[in-house]
Design brief:
This protein is α/β, with parallel strands linked by helices and about 400 residues long. It folds into two domains: about 5-105, Enolase-like, domain 1 (2-Layer Sandwich), CATH 3.30.390.10; about 110-370, Enolase-like C-terminal domain (TIM Barrel), CATH 3.20.20. It has helices at about 40-55, 65-75, 80-100, 105-110, 130-140, 185-205, 220-230, 250-255, 275, 295-305, 320-335, 345-350, 380; strands at about 5-10, 20-25, 30-35, 120-125, 145-150, 175, 180-185, 210, 235-240, 260, 285, 310-315, 335-340, 355-360, 365, 390, 395, 400-405. Strands 4-5-8-9-10-11-12-13 form an eight-stranded parallel beta barrel, surrounded by four helices. A three-stranded antiparallel beta sheet has the order 1-2-3. The chain is globular, with a radius of gyration of 21 Å. The structure holds 2-keto-3-deoxygluconate and magnesium ion.
Length: about 400
């Protein structure tokens, strides 16, 4: 029998923070898991170091499901982003170990390839419509078949998804306290349909266009926007409302045929149970790192498949290359894959996490024959970039009311 000999947590910050779990077996094989929770990283570090790792030592790493249940049911306190990110990291690392021990990629262990490549969507953003249109064009020139478009809104100083510089948009800001921003739903709703009209006028019907409302509408406002988007047939409208109240999607669904995506903040199948079983959404965004790892996501995706709901995993830069590798193995294997978000990491992150995925012509490919997840961490380099305190922004309405960011 193989046993888990030790495990450690590696925190690094090559431009942004990442938390990585490394589990070692007595036989010398190790596995990696991502445990990054943007803006609350150290809570997961403590959860792993103080409570989870001691329970792993001496266990058989091949018993992935049993270890998952031990950590989930055995804690008594279930669900939540801290718990589920920690469990996800263990789960990813165990699948990585199993793949390495059997000398096969994880997608083979999940049933084998269902497709050759994974369609991804990229992020285009600009300070106004003209700049956003140019950015979408640049993505199409690079071969993207699907592009998410976000634009600055006249009269609002800064908004979700729009970079102030030419660099990739990175919402977590380094510092002792969160930055605050101001929001106006009225200004947003009056403006944003115009962006998609112009995009269709410029690029025609073919490119898949996506948009993220980032939890800022009420159900009836979301219904209005969905209706106004209909002539521009979006691939999806994402996170139109905060989704704790799953029933609220009944209102949105009654009014619009714009496809709906939700779930990047969900942690378990219970967060989406009604949304899926009543077919109130089209794409589920819960990712491997937030959704308790490959083992739990497999159950969620199978449940979703019955109800015509497809996956659309979250893939912003706060999900490390370890999650991206796990996601691509997963995306390749399931039948009800929809699309994968892809926000390229900076060069330094790529160096710290050597991986085996490659973007070509709008699709992501995994290098053939890499056992496990196909990703590694250069610990020596990582140690040169220690944790830096950073928070996601806090959002207020123009009158000062605290609002969703
Ligand atoms: O950490 C928060 C980000 O991952 C989130 O704001 C990104 O909404 C997001 C997306 O769709 O990528
Ligand atoms: Mg989002």
């Amino acid at each position: 029998m193989t046993t888990i000999e030790s495990a450690k947590v590696i925190v690094c910050s090559p431009g942004r923070n990442f938390v990585t779990l490394k589990i070692f077996t007595e036989q010398g094989v190790y596995g990696l898991g991502d445990a990054t929770l943007n803006g609350r990283e150290k809570a997961v570090v403590s959860y792993l170091e103080d409570y989870v790792i001691p329970c792993l030592i001496g266990r058989d790493p091949s018993r992935i499901e049993d270890i998952w249940q031990y950590l989930y049911k055995g804690a008594y306190w279930r669900r939540g982003p801290v718990t589920m990110s920690a469990i996800a990291a263990v789960d990813m690392a165990l699948w990585d170990i199993k793949g390495k021990m059997l000398d096969t990629p994880v997608y083979n262990l999940l049933g084998g390839k269902s497709r050759e490549a994974v369609m991804v969507y990229g992020h285009a953003n600009g300070k106004d419509i003209a700049e956003t249109i140019d950015e979408v064009g640049r993505h199409l020139d690079k071969g993207y078949k699907a592009v998410r478009a976000q634009s600055g809104i006249p009269g609002i100083e800064s908004t979700y998804g729009v970079s102030k510089t030419k660099d990739n948009y990175e919402p977590a800001v380094r510092g002792d306290l969160p930055k605050e921003s101001l929001w106006s739903t009225e200004k947003y709703l009056n403006f944003i349909p115009k962006l998609f009209k112009e995009l269709r006028d410029t690029y025609g019907d073919e490119p898949h266009l996506l948009h993220d409302c980032h939890h800022r509408l009420t159900p009836i406002e979301a219904a209005r926007l969905g209706k106004e988007f209909e002539p521009y047939h979006l691939f999806w409208m994402e996170d139109c409302t905060p989704a704790e109240l799953q029933e609220s999607f009944r209102i949105i669904r009654e009014h619009t045929t714009t496809p709906l995506a939700v779930g990047e903040v969900f942690n378990t199948v219970w967060d989406a149970q009604l949304l899926i079983s009543e077919m109130l959404i089209d794409y589920l965004r819960t990712s491997i790192v937030r959704g308790g790892g490959i083992s739990h996501m497999k159950k969620i995706a199978s449940f979703a498949e019955i109800y015509h709901v497809r996956t659309g995993f979250h893939g912003a830069t706060d999900l490390s290359p370890v999650t991206m590798s796990a996601a691509l193995n997963f995306d390749l294997s399931i039948n009800n894959f929809g699309i994968q978000e892809y926000m390229p990491h900076n060069g330094l992150t790529q160096e710290l996490f050597p991986n085996s995925y490659q973007f070509k012509d709008g699709f992501m490919y995994l290098e053939e024959g890499k056992p496990g997840l196909g990703v590694d961490i250069d610990e020596e380099k990582a140690s040169k970039y220690p944790y830096e305190r950073a928070y996601l922004p806090v959002n207020r309405k123009e009158d000062g009311t605290l609002f969703n960011w």
